[in-house]
Amino acid sequence: MKGKFSDILQYVFVIRELTSREIKRKYARSSLGIIWSVLNPLLMMVVISLIFSTMFKRKIENFPIYFLTGQTLWGLFSGATNAAMTALVDNKTLLIKAKLPKHTFILSRVYTSLVNFGYTCIAFVLMLLIFRIKPSFTMLLFPICIVFALFFSIGIGYFLATLYVFFADIKHLYGIFLTLLMYLSAIFYPVDSLPEAMQLVINWNPVYLQILFARECVMYGHFPEGWVWIRLVIWCIGSLLFGMIVFKSKENKIMQTI
Amino acid sequence: MIVSDERERVISVKDVTMEFHLSTYNPSGLKDYLIQAVKRKIEYRRLFALYHVSFDVYKGEVVGIIGTNGSGKSTLLKIVSGALRPTSGKVIVDRKKVQLLTLGTGFDMELTARENVYLNGSIIGYSKEFLDKHYNDIVEFAELQDFMEEKVKNFSSGMVSRLGFAIATAGDAAEILILDEVLSVGDEFFRKKSLARIKEMIHGGSTVLIVSHGMNTILDNCSKCVWIEKGELRMVGNPKEVCEAYRHMEENENAVGA
What we know:
The complex is a heterodimer.
Chain A: H1 2-26, H2 35-52, H3 63-85, H4 87-90, H5 92-97, H6 104-130, H7 142-166, H8 170-183, H9 196-202, H10 206-219, H11 226-257
Helix pairs in contact in A: 1-6, 2-3, 2-6, 3-6, 3-7, 3-8, 3-10, 6-7, 7-10, 7-11, 10-11
Chain B: H1 2-6, E1 9-23, H2 30-38, E2 44-58, E3 62-66, H3 73-81, E4 88-92, E5 98-101, H4 113-123, H5 128-142, H6 157-168, E6 176-180, H7 188-203, E7 207-211, H8 215-221, E8 224-229, E9 232-237, H9 239-257
Parallel strand pairs in B: 3-7, 3-8, 5-6, 6-7
Antiparallel strand pairs in B: 1-2, 1-4, 8-9
């Protein structure tokens, strides 16, 4: 039992060390440092609101909040998967020495993204107060939404990290894919302005589902509908299983190639 | 042989074969790969990095591993340390006790030396308490007292390898120490210091594996020598005899070459 416990402690220690490294590196040369994680979404919000809020005036109430909800969750997913993709290759020399399972490196990248998301949430809460969004009990569901986002990102992260070892090109391809997915996530436009066929597609988009979930429980004080829950659960389990199977089956090959 | 059986066996390499599939054509990317795959142009060449290698290492031994470049020495070390799984055969060793020290130490150049001690230490399995306790010893041994808050990118290669060696040999954590060409760098003074430290560790019950091209390092320090040539085990035994045979082969090959 004692061995298991110290293993877990070590796991936490490693992930914290790797994460603090990532954050130190990211902001090594900037004077504002991690504050950028708060400022960035706020500035984005101002710009996007200036441009789009009049366009959708009649359709979306509190447009800046509508956008910010989407943007923060999108940032979590794209940040986590993008960073996880290069986790194994970037840590080549450490991988050989690592005493813990190799996927720790992937998890630490996702965790780094979560820490960043935490800072972004400061901006988010601030805006909720400024726009006087009515507090409601459904807001307590927001952490569940983050768990959905994390599990989904971890699965995709496993898959991308494995693929990236064998094909570095995937980085560029994934960049294009992310742009496409972002426009399909209804971050700054109302979904009902899309043609019906398109709405069917978007209602299966995992990132959009997360955003929808968050908007329902935070902005509107609604309990998210059953179909949203079901689809999110399917995506999470599917992504995790898929990612883990791909990673596990290629694990030895990764060490040979890297 | 009779004497050996009374001692405690710490590493047992049993009939280990490592097969690599080398693609004769190296695709530069995904697109290229797909095109070639469709054209069925991708062929694999089988390469045995290790071929049915077996030997045992007993507690307190200092084993030197020699062989020409590309003979499979590093592959063997990676298998012993658990970074790679062999294609067939097995290695019996307690992975938790193994510390692998290679020239690529895995330091993050953008971080300070202190941060690197903790990051690297956590990866190779040291707990936070252990690192706190031994931090001063590490700094002192590496002779970097005034440099710990400096970024590692400003260090000379000698300083980097000193720090790497100091971390790997900290405390009495490493019961099995594997050194891959580490003793051939650094100044003469530090080399002596490192060798003294290794002797100290052996007295404390550690076992050491050394890969080196320097015959003298092997002759002066090892109690046993393993010679691997083109993936196959040539000879195991007294360092003097094995090195003699190895030299003999080299001379013969040179003669043939000339």
